């Protein structure tokens, strides 16, 4: 099962918004929000809540791609998020998420018995490539048991 398929099963909101997982690797994930009128705001663009969910889902996709092999010993959890809406987003929007720390560094902390925290940066772009939002989600790997 792909990372996108796993998230669609585990996170009902990703299914509700019909998010499209275009690329997932341990370094980067690209996820798209389709342009649907039932996801729009009062000016005809994607609702801020839908864009937040898009960005958070992209961050979760890169975390799962980077640390999915650790699920037997640690649970990934989002600790907090900040988002800035920089411009009007119309049409289909994509979110590109990248890890803010090397995965090996995060795993070294986990191996040392600590609970690592790490940021994931997300750029939200409309179809013409313009960045319309920026987001940072801070994640942790909570050791199981």
UniProtKB/TrEMBL annotation:
<protein>
    <recommendedName>
        <fullName>DUF4442 domain-containing protein</fullName>
    </recommendedName>
</protein>
<dbReference type="Pfam" id="PF14539">
    <property type="entry name" value="DUF4442"/>
</dbReference>
<dbReference type="InterPro" id="IPR027961">
    <property type="entry name" value="DUF4442"/>
</dbReference>
<dbReference type="InterPro" id="IPR029069">
    <property type="entry name" value="HotDog_dom_sf"/>
</dbReference>
């Amino acid at each position: 099962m792909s990372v996108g398929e796993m998230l669609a099963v585990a996170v009902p909101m990703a299914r509700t918004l019909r998010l499209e997982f275009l690329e997932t690797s341990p370094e980067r994930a690209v996820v798209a929000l389709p342009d649907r009128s039932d996801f729009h705001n009062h000016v005809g663009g994607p609702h801020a809540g839908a864009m937040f969910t898009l960005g958070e889902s992209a961050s979760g996709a890169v975390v799962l791609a980077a640390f999915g092999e650790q699920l037997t010993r640690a649970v990934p959890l989002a600790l907090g998020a900040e988002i800035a809406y920089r411009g009007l987003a119309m049409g289909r929007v994509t979110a590109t998420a990248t890890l803010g720390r090397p995965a090996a560094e995060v795993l070294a902390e986990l191996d040392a018995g600590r609970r690592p925290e790490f940021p994931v940066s997300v750029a939200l772009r409309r179809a013409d490539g313009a960045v319309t939002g920026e987001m940072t989600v801070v994640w942790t790997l909570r050791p199981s048991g």
